[in-house]
Design goal:
Blueprint lengths: L21 E12 L9 E10 L4 E7 H14 L21 H19 L2 H4 L2 H7 L1
Antiparallel strand pairs: 1-2, 2-3
Length: about 130
């Protein structure tokens, strides 16, 4: 099935959405950063592409653990909005470097990032800005 993406097509944020600053956000790629020969210490870096309302684009690389930390911080900071916070894709000790698993995780992280940046409450938070900038 085709992946679902979220994108805001408004030209500029309105008075009711002052926290919005990103037009779109997606996790576009990943790179496996190797550790030792036995892959001890290896991790995956996720490339996040953000487009602002001004038309600027920038890419940041984040580890899954950084997404996890942001998720926890948003839960603590916005307890009344937890129902609007999407779940992160699950972890796997066995499949964590397999292409099929990584593609599924990329899609899940992309959905999470889009939901966060297209929600005015979350997008205007210093937590999200610190995560991306």
């Amino acid at each position: 099935p085709m992946a679902i993406t979220l994108e805001d097509h408004t030209v500029t944020p309105g008075e009711n959405t002052p926290g919005l600053w990103a037009r779109s956000a997606q996790v576009v790629d990943y790179a496996i950063v190797s550790g030792s020969r036995t892959r001890a210490g290896a991790y995956v870096a996720w490339s996040c592409l953000i487009e602002t309302f001004e038309g600027a684009q920038f890419t940041v690389r984040k580890r899954y653990s950084e997404f996890f930390t942001l998720h926890e911080q948003l839960q603590e900071t916005f307890p009344k909005s937890v129902k609007y916070l999407p779940h992160l894709p699950p972890k796997s000790l066995i499949s964590k470097f397999r292409p099929k698993f990584l593609e599924h995780r990329r899609q899940g992280l992309s959905y999470f990032l889009s939901c966060i940046l297209l929600n005015p409450e979350f997008a205007g938070s210093p937590l999200v800005k610190d995560f991306l900038l």
